[in-house]
Design brief:
heterodimer, A: 161 residues, alpha/beta, five-stranded parallel β-sheet, 5 helices, 5 strands, B: 416 residues, mainly alpha, 76% helix
């Protein structure tokens, strides 16, 4: 069975869910995916405080809990906006790797541009999105999180004579 | 080969290794205290010298304990939660502005309540705030971890390394802050510029602002106590009393207030004090003293340049940064302080710039490999060493050079 994977990210997930509403055939299953990747630096910072003991003070653990809660809330809001049956998946790790892995058996991956949204061009893709678009093992639907910039933002074109 | 040196150095490696690897989950002090006893019993350090070291460190440890309690009680009073609410109200829907707010909050928290407060108490609040306002949390969490080091330059209370140097340097509280203000600002500004560039893709101009009703409540008592304590540092220093007493007064005032209102317990305050940690620092100090006195001091004395010229300060800070990355900044500052303490405030403060800014270079800045193994082992695929190191490779050299130049300028303007 195939399914459509929608990668939801803070700030841009609504555009992806809206794209799924428009482009996902009703027969296909939709999976809403969220990836957390922030407890690493917090754990590292605490580990660098030599001699503090008390592993229960490690903010990484608190961050992991908070991340799990906020991911659930984000996915619940996304599911409500999608307004059709779907599965909700959370992963932790480097987002670009996790999303590519999650899309392994997908019939479509929907994600939003995460770079400069003021002009058309390659800078509208940040590092993670660039990696996923380059490495996705399935078709990709890449959406603008906000209305796309107009064509005047294109680089100047010099036609050959 | 000097046998005492070998014994002391081996014990130091053992103490640091156990502090990082934490075999059987035991507190660090379990290994450090016996190691300190062994360096005394084997004669690697005389009992008089060990007592002298403990006597020097004890007031510093007391000061640190008071600050740790003060920070935890501020959290119990809801001060950090209020910071989160303020941040989300001021910056909703604008991730770049949120980053600016996080920089201000983390810089002030670190400077006033020490880096422990930023790492342990502020970071989770910042994460929750970022996700609540629809921003990607990563740049903001990284900002907390970086600023816990680079914003810890300003006051003696900002970092344990500062307290140790403050005690050794003979510089007054106000003079310390005056000389470190410019390096502090420069280091933070350098971090901010690099962060805006490094995390550009994670900081869109605007996101859809979520509707959110925040419950505004100002923990006035905690805020007034902290501000009064700060004023107390300056006042006590001006009349020649140890500023540690101001910290103690602030902690006691908050403790009584919180106990009466049942916001904390005596056990909670005891936990915040972190007695095992304080004893660990004392024991580490004794072991390091033995290593330094038995030959390391002479060896490192050849590496550290004399004088307070710009290049001498740069070289001193660089040596301190490298050492902080090799053996963690706490033992690094214990090793280096006796070597520069006679040379005046310039070299002492240059050491601080190195040991405080340096840890952002390698992951958690200390015993990198061992530590890295522990973190990776515990959380298999959550950590991104490459990203952390790339960020540090940009911020640390830039911040360190600019901060040393600022210190050098300050020494010329204010005098030292």
């Amino acid at each position: 069975m195939t399914m459509i994977v929608v990668w939801t990210v803070e700030g841009t997930w609504r555009a992806c869910v809206d794209a799924a509403r428009v482009h996902a055939p009703s027969a296909e299953e939709v999976e809403l995916l969220h990836v957390s990747d922030v407890s690493g630096p917090a754990r590292g910072a605490f580990a660098g405080l030599l001699g503090r003991g008390h592993p229960e003070h490690d903010p990484g653990a608190r961050l992991a809990d908070l991340a799990a809660t906020s991911a659930e809330e984000l996915l619940a809001a996304a599911a409500a906006r999608l307004a059709r049956p779907c599965t909700q998946t959370t992963r932790t790790g480097r987002p670009e790797r996790e999303v590519v892995a999650a899309a392994e058996h997908a019939s479509l991956l929907i994600l939003a541009r995460d770079g400069d949204q003021t002009r058309l061009g390659p800078k509208s893709l940040g590092h993670a999105t660039r990696f996923i678009v380059d490495h996705a093992p399935c078709p990709v639907l890449l959406v603008w999180p906000m209305p796309a910039p107009d064509l005047t933002t294109l680089p100047h074109h010099h036609p050959h004579h | 080969v000097n046998v005492s040196f070998v014994v002391a150095a081996a014990l130091l490696v053992l103490v640091l290794g156990c502090a990082v690897a934490r075999p059987w989950g035991l507190p660090e002090v379990v290994f450090a205290a016996p190691a300190a006893a062994v360096v005394v019993l084997t004669g690697a350090i005389t009992l008089d010298d060990a007592v002298d070291e403990v006597t020097q460190l004890a007031p510093v440890i007391g000061f640190l304990g008071a600050i740790l309690v003060l920070a935890q009680l501020c959290d119990d009073e809801g001060l950090f939660h209020a910071c989160g609410v303020w941040l989300s109200l001021a910056t909703r829907g604008r991730p770049r502005r949120l980053l600016g707010g996080v920089f201000v909050t983390a810089a002030v928290t670190t400077a006033v309540l020490s880096l422990d407060a930023t790492v342990v108490l502020l970071t989770p609040v910042v994460f929750a705030t970022a996700t609540r306002v629809g921003a990607r949390p990563k740049p903001h969490v990284y900002a907390c971890t970086h600023l816990s080091n680079s914003a810890s330059l300003l006051l003696p209370v900002s970092n344990l390394t500062n307290l140790l140097a403050f005690a050794a340097s003979g510089v007054g509280f106000t003079m310390f802050a005056g000389l470190m203000a410019a390096p502090w600002l420069v280091a933070i500004a350098a971090e901010y510029v690099v962060f805006r560039w490094f995390f550009a893709a994670d900081l869109p101009r605007a996101t859809e602002a979520p509707p959110a009703d925040e419950h505004r409540e100002l923990p006035l008592f905690a805020l007034v106590t902290v501000v009064t304590t700060l004023a107390g540092f300056v006042l006590t220093a001006a009349v020649g009393i140890e500023p540690a007493w101001a910290a103690l007064a602030g902690a006691v005032a908050l403790a009584v207030h919180a106990l009466v209102r049942r916001r904390t317990t005596v056990k909670g305050i005891g936990g915040a004090l972190g007695l095992p940690f304080l004893v660990f620092v004392l024991a580490l100090g004794v072991v390091v003293r033995a290593v330094v006195d038995n030959g390391l001091g002479t060896a490192l004395g050849n590496v550290i340049p004399d004088g307070a010229g710009l290049f001498a300060l740069l070289a001193t800070a660089a040596v301190a940064a490298v050492l902080a990355n090799m053996i963690n900044n706490l033992p690094a500052v214990l090793v280096l302080l006796p070597l520069v303490a006679q040379a005046g405030p310039g070299p002492v403060l240059a050491v601080l710039l190195g040991v405080n800014l340096g840890p952002n270079l390698t992951y958690a800045g200390s015993l990198a490999t061992l530590l890295w193994r522990r973190v990776v082992h515990a959380h298999d695929h959550e950590v991104n060493l490459g990203e952390f190191t790339r960020l540090g490779l940009v911020t640390v050299p830039v911040g360190l050079v600019l901060a040393v130049v600022a210190l050098w300028g300050g020494l010329h303007v204010i005098g030292g």
